[in-house]
Write a structure and sequence with these properties.
Order of helices and strands: EHHEEHEHEEEEEEEHEHEEHEEEEEHH
Helix content: 25-40%
Number of domains: 3
Strand content: 15-25%
Number of helices: 9
Shape: globular
Distance between the termini: 52 Å
Length: about 425
């Protein structure tokens, strides 16, 4: 169930994983107490990087789109976790409306929608899929490569004064978004006040910022590290922000260069402290956005002052044609994991507060210091051997159940950070 991995589990990371393993009861108790005070997102996925000296999240998605990549062995765990999530939101729910991205040709994404609908169906819900696409004017059946069929139906406002969202003959208790709202909130989704909309609208990329998430994660990492008696840097990717950038007009370059210098200086100090000989680097990327767009690796501040037109164009625009004006400069975490001769990073999926599986994102065309969410990537589904929740103290820290347990712990820390992030971003009641 686990592909051959080449890893570098030595030094600080081995010690970190040993620490987590030896204090697994403390870890689980601490996390459990956090969920008494905070509400986990309905679902989430976390991209992790295992550097051999550091294990840290580099991105957290609140509209995960890769359920089709999970190992089928853990679908029962998905269903149980989804039941827990639904019971918290709408215990008597019968109908649920799933609103996907506006894709009709991305077969992999559509298989994700079908898998997600199947998971929710097994919780005892009647699940139907409402499309925001204007060309979907009647129920439309799509044939998928894996033999499944997906029916898209036109969304409409229903109920008194159109205050609810539904379909022609379908009035759902809750609406689950699998659309990250990169282009803003469509009119159909505005002013819905009689249904549960999950995640909330302010979880979308029209509002959300990666810097806000990692600020929350930093708070979580410090608190967790204090509980375990470890250096928070071992699990925390540091960052800086530039809020006024225009790559086409070459404005904001000074801000970028200054913050890159600042972050690299701090990284070199930490590398020296831990005896790390590799060259530090940072990742410059859009503060809002997904799909691996608007990302570059930088090892020296001078690099952002000498971007050619092609590089500037690549950084200037992200999903939905949105222009990049805000940038996060994130500590680069190299990955020393390899799967099938390709550079790899684990992606952990969660529903409610439970780890439900994951996969390795693999890219044979990218290096250890580059973004792997790019053309050429493939996915290797994992059962994550006991679902990242059953470590074996009789085995070494780098044994698969324990390695995946450490992954699950750090992913849950990122999920907790997402909870804090959403709480802080929630509109103030007037």
């Amino acid at each position: 169930m686990v592909p051959h991995l080449t890893t570098a589990l030595t030094g600080p990371l081995l010690e970190l994983e040993r620490r987590i393993l030896e204090h697994d009861t403390t870890v689980e108790r601490w996390l459990r107490t956090q969920w008494l005070e905070h509400t986990p997102p309905f679902y989430s996925s976390v991209d992790l990087r295992n550097a051999g000296f550091k294990l840290a999240p580099v991105d957290t998605n609140l509209f995960p789109g890769g359920f089709n990549n999970l190992n089928p062995a853990f679908l029962p765990l998905c269903v149980q976790a989804a039941m827990s999530a639904i019971e918290k939101i709408c215990p008597e729910a019968r109908n649920l409306l799933l609103v996907p991205e506006n894709h009709t040709r991305n077969q992999f994404y559509l298989m994700n929608v079908a898998r997600l609908a199947s998971i929710l169906h097994h919780t005892g819900l009647d699940v139907r899929i409402g499309s925001l696409l204007p060309e979907i004017t009647e129920p439309t059946t799509l044939d998928l490569p894996d033999g499944q069929k997906l029916v898209l139906e036109p969304l409409k406002r229903i109920g008194t004064d159109g205050r609810r969202l539904g379909l022609e003959d379908f009035d759902p208790c809750a609406v689950l978004l699998n659309n990250d709202l990169s282009g803003g909130v469509p009119e159909l989704l505005q002013n819905i006040n009689e249904q549960f909309l999950i995640p909330p609208l302010w979880a979308g990329w029209h509002v959300r910022r990666k810097s806000k998430h990692f600020a929350a994660y930093q708070d979580v990492a410090i608190a967790f590290a204090q509980e375990l008696g470890i250096d928070p840097w071992l699990i925390n990717p540091e960052f800086e922000v530039c809020g006024k950038v225009n790559f086409h007009e070459r404005s904001g370059e000074e801000c970028l260069a200054a913050n890159i210098d600042t972050l690299l200086y701090r990284m070199r100090a930490k590398y020296k402290e831990y005896g790390i000989e590799s060259e530090p680097f940072v990742i410059v990327k859009a503060d809002a956005g997904t799909y691996g767009m608007g990302i570059m690796t930088v090892k020296d501040a001078s690099e952002v002052k000498n971007l050619n037109r092609k590089q500037r164009n690549k950084m200037a625009v992200i999903k939905e044609g949105m222009e990049v004006t805000e940038v996060i400069i994130q500590e680069g975490v190299p990955t020393f994991e390899r799967v099938d001769e390709g550079t790899a990073e684990p992606v952990v999926y969660m529903i409610d507060r439970y780890v439900v599986g994951g996969f390795y994102r693999v890219n044979t065309a990218r290096g250890i210091d580059e973004n792997l969410n790019a053309p050429g990537m493939t996915f290797k589904p994992l059962a994550f051997e006991t679902g990242c929740c059953l470590p074996d103290i009789h085995l070494g820290p780098d044994a698969p159940p324990n390695r995946f347990y450490a992954y699950g712990v750090v992913a849950r820390l990122a999920m907790l950070a997402a909870s804090l992030e959403l709480e802080r971003a929630a509109p103030t009641e007037t």
